[in-house]
Each structure stands twice: as C-alpha cells, then as structure tokens.
UniProtKB/TrEMBL annotation:
This is N-acetyltransferase domain-containing protein. Pfam families: Acetyltransf_3. PROSITE patterns: GNAT. One of its GO terms (molecular function) is acyltransferase activity, transferring groups other than amino-acyl groups. Residues 10-160 form the N-acetyltransferase domain.
Length: 163
C-alpha cells in the first residue's frame, strides 16, 4: 500500500522485508530521540535480528507504514489493532526530519485512508506526559483527550463521527 499526502514529497508505504536495513539504521540513529520521553523501550532495545523477525511476522491486522520523503525512509506510522475495531496510532520521525509537518501530513493521509477503506471505528493514542510535539500532532489531527493514566494521557479520534 502506498499513500500520497498533502505534501508532494511525502508518502507512506507499507514496510516490508526490503526495508529492514534502512529501518534498522534509522532506529540506530534515533535511540536517544525515541527515548527522550521514556517511550519506545522495546524498539530501542531491539537488535537487528529482532527487527528482522518483527518484519517477517507482522501482527495480524496491523498497518505499519514507512514515512518517506523523496523516497527516503524518515519515520514510521502504525495503526495497531488493540481491541478491533478500535486501533491505536503510533508514530516517530528521524530527529533530523522533525519540524516539517511530516507526522501531521502522514497522519491525515493514513486516517483518511482508514476512514474510507477499513472498519476501524476509533483510533487511540497514548502520549507520555510532557511529550509536547506529539500532543501537538494529535491536536492537529483532531484527537481529543479522554483520560490520564499513570504516566501518559490517552487521546481518541472517532472515524465514524463527522469530523
Ligand atoms: C512526535 C513527533 C513525530 C512530532 O514530530 P514533529 O515534526 O514535531 O511533528 P510534525 O511532523 O507534524 O511537524 C510539526 C512541526 O512542523 C511545522 N510545520 C512545517 N510545515 C508544516 C506543515 N505543512 N504542516 C504542519 N506543520 C508544519 C509545525 O509548525 C511544527 O513545528 P513546531 O514544532 O516548531 O511547532 C517527533 O517529535 C518524534 O518523532 N518524537 C519521538 C517519538 C515520539 O515521541 N512519538 C510519539 C509517541 S506518542
């Protein structure tokens, strides 16, 4: 699957085995960035073989897409079935790629695709307290706060109510 976005340089494409090396390099370059708010412990701890195994056995029903600028992998956006038809949204960008609206534009394209092509009813996102850039992305995508948990705030977007 490949999705275009409002930014002509920016596309989303399903991650597959051909992307393992690029993805691994991106994770290696972004360990500190990904952990700045205490998130992504599993991904940051993964070695190349664990990443490869994850790509080889994707979670049933998950949509994992690479965020690409002019074809280059700069991040990831994932819709994960938590309690289908309720999904969660996760995303991260290469530290060098932040500040360009890529996460927002990728999110708009993916959520529009999901609204039109899947039975997903609700999308949730958990944001660790203090992760302002991520909260700003969710605000721009139309998510609203639903509850505070121990270390994070849960956000929700309905794909079935008119936005
Ligand atoms: C969360 C994360 C993806 C947000 O990245 P981001 O670049 O700030 O978000 P966007 O790509 O939507 O870009 C928004 C920024 O680009 C600017 N921008 C430029 N062109 C834009 C456009 N066309 N549309 C929207 N914003 C644009 C915005 O003004 C904003 O800048 P600001 O931060 O100075 O206000 C990034 O910080 C990250 O990877 N963090 C580590 C992983 C993480 O925390 N993931 C989320 C877990 S819940």
């Amino acid at each position: 699957m490949e999705l275009v976005t409002a930014d002509p340089r920016l596309r989303l494409r399903t991650l597959d085995m051909a992307d393992v090396e690029d993805y691994w390099r991106l994770v290696e370059h972004n360990r500190d960035h990904l952990g700045r708010h205490g998130d992504y412990a599993e991904l940051r701890a993964a070695d190349r073989e664990m990443i490869r195994a994850g790509f080889a056995h994707p979670l049933d029903g998950e949509f994992a897409l690479g965020i690409r600028v002019d074809g280059d992998l700069v991040g990831e956006m994932v819709l994960t079935p938590v309690d289908p038809p309720r999904y969660s949204l996760g995303y991260w960008l290469d530290e060098k790629a932040v500040g360009n609206g890529y996460a927002t534009n990728a999110g708009r394209a993916l959520l529009m695709w999901a609204r039109e092509n899947t039975g997903i009813t609700d999308v949730y996102a958990g944001v660790t307290f203090g992760n302002r850039p991520s909260i700003a992305v969710l605000d721009r995508l139309g998510f609203t706060e639903v509850s505070d948990q121990d270390t994070y705030t849960r956000y929700r977007l309905s794909l079935r109510e008119p936005s």
